[in-house]
Amino acid sequence: MMAAAAQAQTDDTTPFYVGGTLGVSRVSNVYREPNATNDDTVTSVGLLGGIDQRLGRQHLTVDGSLQNNRYATNSDLNYRSYSLRSALNWQTVGNLSGVLSAKSDRSLADFNIGNGIDPDDLVRKKNIERNDEYQAIARLGVTTRYTLEGGWTQRRRDFSAEEYARFVYRQNTGSLGLYATPAGNVRLGLVARHTKGTNPRYPVGLAIDPDTSEVVVVNAINDFTRDDIDFTTRWTVGGHSTLNTRISRSKTRNSLDLLRDFSGTTGAIGWNWRPTGKLQFDLNYSRDTGQESVVRAADLNRVYTTWQLGSSYSLTGKLSLSARASSNRTRRNGESGVNLANAFDDTKLYNIGVRWAISRGFSLNCQYDHASRDSSVPQYVYSASSYGCTGQAILF
């Protein structure tokens, strides 16, 4: 919804930076409702900071931002957001190396998320979303033809609105993979992944509260597991084109009977092409369950197909253009006790932007975004857009 500030970069002699941002955006259809005209102007003031420091063989990076976002009309939606990214790339004298990373975000959640929210009770109140991810990766044999890699990832998601309880989850994923480089431009991998997680408050029905005589939502714990066997490839052509693929045999199990288990083939393909030093294209396509392709939905029993197309072009050394389009769609064949044979949900996003590096420490970013959804549930259908600019000042 807001024009995002560009990440600052430090040079080789300055291990840290601090700065600030000021942005103004015009947002249409704030609550993402059908045929709605609830437009508003959002002003955002933020602070930036970061570290980029080498410690012998190790490399530490930290980037963070804190923003105060205020609505001109819908003041009850005013909120503070933040974003934090950190990573430690480490290596030993031998062929052992890895990465320790953490990231955390806090923002205003999307309104009208669909995917099971009661269409007659769409959330209009402030709903704060928080996402955390921690990851550890270790590699043995980086400079050799064969590489053994093990990893662990923890993800957590929370919402302040009780109506979004079904999308709250915790999960841990462990992986072990063997990678081979039969040729200088080809890399093959075989990876086993195991995921174990929980939806702590998944709604399973309604009941009458004996104390208040009001209808309340009954929640239950859904524990889930997922096992994957991945075959991956990475092919680099002439230094200008890189193709990545993944084909997986995936199996998911849920402890709640109302959530169907999944067993099938998932996968993804990504292509990055740099025809010139100024022009770049990237294309990504995936077919996966909701928690992997649309993490905010945490729909383990639905399969989504997603594609993204992006490009960037440097007009001059200070002026650059960017554009991006994406589509996410699902076709549902039904859930336990509910006939959804003809159910569908298609979401499309478009973005164009321009960045002007006025000087070494000052830049201006302007962008336009459009989002729309078509769904078999009429209340989930909407169209919305936003446009605005953000100025950024960096003090090294």
UniProtKB/TrEMBL annotation:
This is Beta-barrel porin 2.
